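WARN retry 2 of 3 for item q-0093 after timeout on previous attempt; input resubmitted unchanged.
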Amino acid sequence: MKRLVSSLCAGVCALTVGTAGMAQAAPARSTLIVNARVIDGTGAPARTGAVRIERGRIAAVGKLTRRAGEEVVDAHGEVLAPGFIDTHSHHDHGLFDMPDALPVTTQGVTTIIVGQDGGSALPVADLFARMRKTPVAVNVASYVGHNTIRETVMGEDYKRHATPAEIERMAALIDSGMKDGALGLSTGLEYDPGIYSDKAEVLTLAKEAARFGGRYISHVRSEDQYLWAALDEIVEIGRATGMPVQVSHMKLAMTDWWGEANRYLAVLDRAHAQGVDISGDVYPYEYWQSTLAVMFPKRDFDNRASAEFALKHLAPPEGLLISHFSPEPALVGKTIAQIAALRRTDPAETLMRLIAESRGPTAEESVIGTSMRADDVATLIAWPRSNISSDGELAGRHPRGRGSFPRVLRVYVREQHVLTLEQAVHKMSGEAAAHMGIGDRGVIRPGARADLILFDPARITDRATSEDPSALSVGVSRVWVNGGLVMKDGKATGVRTGEPVRRQQSGAPRT
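OK item q-0093 returned
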């Protein structure tokens, strides 16, 4: 099995360039959207009004009169909202082969934040240059990934702490990424090679990103056995650096912690009360997707006791669904329990054998694990400092890649009333933009970028499931990105006005 950083990087670092094309500018004439129920992304109540788009930006909001020659779109009472911002996305994997990004736009997402879990393009400038050659329908921002730079510096000799000289070389790569416009540093501390880093290495590199006004986002060191210590680590990074920090895809992925979402949030609330700018993102599912290896934090894959512990406390055999397995593709779609029955081995032995089979230099595997509880997910989503993410891919097996944002509106607004419609839109737009440090997107106000979506709140629905992960969401009728209409009635228009979103510069780096 390849290290996760390699597969994360593959979508951006190793794809062949698709058909090149000139970036499509926003329409020269203005567009007036009338009869809309405007939810502006700030959390304010909805109001009836009109919005004018001009030169890729929002020109006016309110009671507006049509100009001569202006395109008019009648919203017929649908909700006009800022385009959603996916703050933890892997939709860059294959994006240049699927530049219309329908799995993203049909959710109402207009900006994806990539370079997650410690895996990013390196240099980050290559990703943005690629967008100029092959225009895409969505905006893209990126972090610089710790795992990627650690692999670059340390190569195959990564199962140890880095030396001061190696950390200095990593810091230089972070400097380069920040100068390219990266939002900050991302880590994936449950994955190789980042799992072998010590806290001092991570803190030193976070401070380097902080010098440039960057942010820190982390798949923390443990989401199960060592969860509480992992939360303490990200809090300490926020406290020591003064930079904003965000916990990626917050979850309690261990049966021992089920029902303790309020304890989880209390850790973050105490830190915030003490001056740490900490937030989190959540996807609306009780199951994750990762590697089988992540269930073995000590990397003792042949330890039967560790395998039995994982199957008892993290996810049961019937709750582990193989989503990719290159050594034996026929196993995809089967659970560990089913494979154990087929092979006539017990589940713990089956788990260990599958990992052994996937440890080759070209082998790859992934699994969908059901190990969270619905009420915990709802509590995390309702937290005032959480925003929504997908952690999804364009063609991944997990339905979150095509359904996360409509699912929030269906489940937590329409069905369970955990959030109001305005609160949900805020978490997916204005609050997400604030957590990423993006000042001109995520809100409907004059001067902001014209990333807008029109949707029916009574109809918007996720359709992707584990059995049919390719089903697109429905209910979003139009999507504008930088003023260009990229999606209408579930179909791509061929307009690709997505832009690189770089960190807003804050002067020279601190010394």
